[in-house]
Amino acid sequence: MESAGEEDAEALAEICKRAFETDVDVGAPGEPGGPPGYDMAEAQLRLMNYLDYYKILLNDWIVGGVLVSSSGEQHRVLERIFVDPDLFRKGIGSRAMELAHALYPEAKLWTLGTPEWNVRTKAFYKKLGYVQVGWDLADPQWRGIWYERVVDSSDPYAMMDIGDLKDGMKNVDVEGEILEKSVARQVRSRRRRWETLVVANAGLGDETGRIVLVLWNDQVKQVKVGDRIRIENGYVSSYMGVNQLNVGRAGRLIILL
Ligand SMILES: CC(C)(COP(=O)(O)OP(=O)(O)OC[C@H]1O[C@@H](n2cnc3c(N)ncnc32)[C@H](O)[C@@H]1OP(=O)(O)O)[C@@H](O)C(=O)NCCC(=O)NCCS
Fold it and tell me: Considering the entire predicted model, what is its pTM?
């Protein structure tokens, strides 16, 4: 496995397209498809700009890809893996995952998501030691299972304490309980061509403190008072002098089991 470059984008897009289009055989609803841009070389190039994008090589031929992002050195997110369907079930995906894990010796926690309908990936990740910790409901079409793999159970990854969160912090991983939720209100986004958005504030607490969690659109309905949730790769900002935790585009809101 090696870092992918611009010259690999075309080949990766072609394999990625064929790989994801087999998802209809393992439970995907609707027509063959994949994640946004899954079949486009330009999209692979964009992903290379903000994720660690590796090509899986077999006898010097590209046979798949692995995409890893980070919300901090000790916590890595497996964003995507795909293997050439002509070579499925030969152990290539598992070997690539092992190599990816080994590339990040500092990582204490790995997380990833997969749709509930995907019987193939559920078996694949389970075999690699991933266990479900919650649900990622960001896609309105299906529930996403959120998995984690603790590298060494005697030295687990420590989530941040809510009481320690400060304005400007990034890569924030916290767990807590939804203590309260405001009534949702509509706002118009100047940045998004005056689109109407729905926003609500929730109180998120752990034993060290509490913070305002900002919920947008579908997120408002995803959480209810009493839920235990995790925010991965969120950020803290200050609004009218009050610190608030934001999920952001790169972050995730996970409803814990
Ligand atoms: C998921 C994927 C990467 C697996 O690659 P692979 O090289 O075929 O995987 P492996 O041969 O290492 O399989 C390891 C284990 O996964 C499970 N698995 C793989 N394919 C499976 C299937 N079709 N049905 C059930 N279990 C399956 C099995 O437990 C398998 O072990 P076994 O063959 O000893 O029973 C590949 O199927 C793929 O590219 N899928 C399309 C894209 C995708 O869904 N990517 C993940 C989401 S980002």
Answer: 0.96
How many angstroms does the Cα of residue 76 sit away from the middle of ligand 1? 21
Q: Is 201 in the pocket of ligand 1 (CB under 6 A)?
A: no
87 HSE (CA, 13 A, CB side): 17
Q: Write the pLDDT tens digit of every residue in 55-84.
A: 999 999 999 999 999 778 999 999 999 999
Q: Is residue 155 a part of any domain in this protein?
A: no
- Residue 176 sits in a domain whose CATH number is 2.40.50.140
Per-residue pLDDT tens digits for 132-159: 999 999 998 899 999 999 999 999 999 9
Q: Are residues 194 and 117 in the same domain?
A: no
Q: Is the dihedral of CA 42, 43, 44, 45 positive or negative?
A: positive
Does residue 144 share a domain with residue 116? yes
* C-alpha span between 72 and 78 (Å, rounded): 13
Q: How many domains does the chain have?
A: 2
What's the CA-to-centroid distance between 156 and ligand 1, angstroms?
27
Residue 168 lies in domain = 162-256
